[in-house]
Amino acid sequence: MPRTAAPLLTSPIPRVADSDRRRTSASVVLRSVLEHGPVARSTIARLTGLSPASVTDYCARFAELGLIRESAALRRSRGVGRPHLPVDLDDSRFVVGSVHVAVPHTTVALLDLRGRVVARREMKHERTEPAVALARAADGLAALLAGAPGRRSLGVGFAAGGWVDRDSGTVVEHPLLGWREVPVREVLGAHTGLPVHVDGHARALVNAERLFGGARGSRSVLHLFAGNVVDAAFATHDEVHHGPRSQAGAIAHLPVPGGTENCDCGRVGCLQAELSERTLCRRAREAGIVDGVNPMHVVGAAAAGDPVAVRLLLERSRRVGRAVRLLLDVLNPERVVVTEIGIMHREDCLTALRQEVEAGRAATVSPISFPESVLAVAGGAVALDVLYRDPLGASPEVI
Asked: How confident is the model at residue 83, as a pLDDT?
């Protein structure tokens, strides 16, 4: 990936209030194009409450940067006058790089401005040392970009489970990988020459849901991620709660009544130990269903009619449902999104999960909107969230 120097700032530094106002206005205009495009500028003004002149100015700047383009189809207004020429996202030029580091493998991908996966590659860990894994990820991204001529990367988003500090760009602790205080932003930035944005995968997927998924427009969203790592994220009014040093959402060691699994922390019955995909696969091996560690093989056995595989998936979904009910009681979100392999692939697992939730709130619970590309979307969403929050600050001319 080529390194491109940022231009020098030559204009006076604006007041903080003015800068914040412009950033917010730019964000709501680009979000309106994302959500409603092709859309007339006059409609954007009505939706956002901004003046038509301000909307026109922002749209002109976005068009110059290559983020939006005028649609070919004219739209006639309801009244008298010239027809409107609507604007829409230009999803043909730019991508963001995505890196998601999971326990068994790293996923690298390219996503367009609509959060769609353009290219993807999954790389099994040869070694899990941070320097090795991140260098391989950078090489993988470079290969994907080389295979996408005409596309330019706006930056890289990185996501992982465990304790990930967004502000410092650091994986503070990932016990399953053995990572501690890994300066991901610094390392990946040095390899790629691009801006790198870092966050935990549960929070990243909340942002993906509110930008591109079924949770768009929800006033509050809870996301529970149940993979090898189990964690959660909570967003209200378009803001994901991070807490001091991004420790919010650490639910791995919540006690599960009646739990029997030994946890690495030394206790028995912690939520992650009970729900981990490693636990699911171990139980499936003990039952003779699979001989490996890929949870999709359990899903495949269930699809082929193996009753024990079906039972294991249903039991896991019910346990996840109990965790959802607990978090619902504490946080009271408008919408709950769950990333869990059973409910993403089987309707009976979703039904079993919802049965563990209070009847009046079961319909608020749904699977992640990206079942075939969860990990790829997670990494990319970190970078896309930055773009849509500050489209001029994260614009192509800066990088």
From this structure: 56
